[in-house]
Amino acid sequence: MVNPERFLQDLQDLRRFGAAGVGKGVVRPAYSDADMAARDWLAERMDAAGLHVQCDAMGNLFGLAGAPSLLLGSHSDSQPQGGWLDGALGVVAALEVARASVEAGGPAISVVSFQDEEGRFGVTTGSNVWSGGLSLGDADELLDHDGVTLGSARQAVGDRVTGAVDPAQFTGFVELHIEQGATLDSAGERIGVVTDIVGIRDRVITLTGQQNHAGTTAMALRRDAFQGLVAYSSRLNDRLRNVVTPQSVWTIGHVSVAPNASSIVPGEVRFSMQWRDGDPVRLARMEAVIDEVLSEVAAEMELGVEKGPLLGLEPVAMDAGLRARLEAGAEAVAPGRWRTMPSGALHDATNVARLMPVAMLFVPSIGGISHAFDEDTAEPDLVAGLRVLAHAAGLNA
């Protein structure tokens, strides 16, 4: 049987690594000192639970039971300014279920904390490499927003690497996560069983104009890269209306202006362009509109355009068998207070689906807040998620 008190204490202990802000914030980006210290702590807990600890070249951390085993987990890195539960909940809950199973002589349960799920260098990079969607060599060339390569950053893993971990030893993967939206919280429900995960496209775009004096350059003569971004964003919103559904989303989330000085007309702007949808055909149609608008604005304003590599993942449906086990667990733990639902956020389960059956479950996010220091979930809901996960893994929760 799982131990809720031990589980909640482990969650609090993990939060200490990178704790920030006045609430329960965490700053633990991939390969940072806080991230590597957290992985060392997790490795110690896995070992103490009777699991065999292994770490691959990317820094993906595994606690292995005997093969074949069910794999549970998520990630323990955070957004640049994130919350204490995003990813961490799934890892710590997996650890508790595996530990409880060892203590009870139950089924073999393995645990994973994937690296760089939050995309410092791309899109769920650690699980993408492990699942074969991206080679380690190509991953090493990816850059973060400061121009650091992944290959350079992952040197922090150092002598922790034990070698590759064979996915063939796992029968499936189940990931517990906070919802990161307001659906469950608004409805007063405790569990969401995921039906499918949306697809995503992500790339970095650079617009290049002419850097010039802000006081002497007439407006009609300017090739202002930032104004190019403003025009592009405004026009894109209008043009996508005929392509998308209410569930489609697109975001310009990171912008870097050069030289970023008040008296200089910006000569360059570099920005992220991300879009998500559950339909791969619609994702492609959105891409076509994005490219068309970009070309139009660049031509009209005499701006150069450079598009970085297109990163992304396809929409993924959850495995029917594993999903049924989660639904049975949800009804046992929270009768009448659960639902099936899609995931608008991306997760490692998308990549792992290349290798084995996958499933996911959600617990409520208070106020629908995530990727922020204010992210939180009520303790009874955290424990409910743990119990549903244990039930699906074949334990008496």
Biggest pleated sheet: 9 strands, mixed
Low-confidence stretches: none
pLDDT average, as an integer?
A: 96
Enumerate how many helices there are, as a single number: 12
Structural class: alpha+beta
End-to-end Cα distance, whole Å, is 5 Å
Taking all Cα atoms into account, the compactness measure Rg is 22 Å
Helix content: 25-40%
Give a count of the beta strands, DSSP E runs of length 2 or more: 19
Q: Percent of residues in beta strands?
A: 15-25%
Structure notes:
The chain has 397 residues and is α+β, with helices and mostly antiparallel strands. It has 12 helices and 19 strands. It has helices at residues 4-15, 33-48, 88-104, 125-130, 136-140, 150-153, 183-187, 225-240, 280-301, 320-333, 349-352, 379-392; strands at residues 19-20, 25-26, 52-55, 61-64, 69-75, 109-114, 170-178, 191-197, 199-208, 212-213, 249-251, 255-258, 264-265, 268-277, 304-307, 311-313, 316-317, 338-343, 358-363. The strands form 4 sheets. Strands 3, 4, 5, 6, 7, 8, 17, 18 and 19 form a 9-stranded mixed sheet that branches. The chain is globular, with a radius of gyration of 22 Å. The model has no long low-confidence stretch (mean pLDDT 96).
Question: What characteristics describe this protein?
Answer:
397 residues, alpha+beta, 9-stranded mixed β-sheet, 6-stranded antiparallel β-sheet, 12 helices, 19 strands, 34% helix, globular
